[in-house]
């Protein structure tokens, strides 16, 4: 791992309790085991491993202690940033995103999802093999190009809302900034979700950023 962007200090948080529970969600089994081994060396008491978002949700429910979640940006069944948002809401105290390249859009979306750190490995972290057993090639869900046509459907107000969401603002904060109620902001986000095909805040932000619709 060669690059780390930390939300608060610019480095991976130190001073973590000597014994902690971690959840590693990485599709590639070799990369997943490497991360798990590193965490055990750092003092993790328990390291739960998952190869997909669905498996991570199941493993998460079985853990009483929820200290650190390490999630790859690309997963076989979804976008890792969206999963990180779910895990943070489920009580995982710290989140770190693992990516194969320093995509600035992914970094911004990771912060929106509540990530504490963004780690870039020296090599890409594929979610799936290059070829399935049958049929054509597969690719991770979040490797799909952003749909400029879908983003073009967003109204000026919806783009204003999404721009503030990208800055990490809550619905209440967005409403205060734009003179709207939190319920109205929620309605705008629901319409944005329908137009972009995703209800996850981090993924909506990443799609809009990649399309150049917001800064």
Automatic annotation (TrEMBL):
Q: Which residues form the Response regulatory domain?
A: 21-136
A Pfam family it matches: GerE
Cross-referenced InterPro entries, in alphabetical order?
A: CheY-like_superfamily, Sig_transdc_resp-reg_C-effctor, Sig_transdc_resp-reg_receiver, Tscrpt_reg_LuxR_C, WH-like_DNA-bd_sf
Task: Using the record's annotation, list all stretches that form the HTH luxR-type domain.
Answer: 147-212
Which keywords has UniProt assigned to this entry? DNA-binding, Transcription, Transcription regulation
- Classification via SMART domains: HTH_LUXR
Query: Record keywords: Signal included?
Result: no
PANTHER family reported in the protein's UniProt record: DNA-BINDING TRANSCRIPTIONAL ACTIVATOR DEVR_DOSR (PTHR44688)
Q: What is this protein called?
A: Response regulator transcription factor
Organism this protein belongs to: Motilibacter deserti
């Amino acid at each position: 791992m060669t690059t780390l962007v930390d939300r608060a200090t610019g480095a991976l948080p130190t001073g973590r309790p000597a014994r902690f529970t971690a959840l590693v969600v990485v599709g590639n089994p070799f990369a997943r085991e490497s991360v798990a081994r590193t965490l055990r060396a750092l003092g993790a008491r328990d390291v739960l491993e998952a190869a997909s978002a669905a498996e991570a949700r199941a493993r998460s429910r079985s853990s009483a202690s929820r200290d650190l979640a390490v999630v790859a940006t690309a997963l076989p069944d979804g976008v890792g940033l969206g999963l990180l948002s779910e895990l943070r809401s489920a009580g995982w105290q710290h989140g770190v995103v693992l990516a194969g390249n320093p995509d600035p859009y992914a970094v911004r979306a990771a912060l929106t999802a509540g990530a504490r750190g963004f780690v870039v490995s020296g090599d890409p972290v594929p979610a799936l093999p290059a070829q399935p057993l049958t049929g054509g090639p597969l690719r991770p869900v979040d490797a799909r190009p952003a749909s400029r046509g879908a983003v073009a459907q967003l109204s000026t107000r919806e783009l204003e809302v999404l721009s503030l969401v990208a800055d990490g603002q809550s619905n209440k904060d967005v409403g205060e900034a734009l003179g709207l109620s939190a319920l109205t902001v929620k309605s705008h986000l629901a319409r944005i979700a329908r137009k972009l095909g995703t209800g996850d805040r981090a993924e909506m932000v990443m799609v809009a950023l990649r399309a150049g619709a917001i800064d």
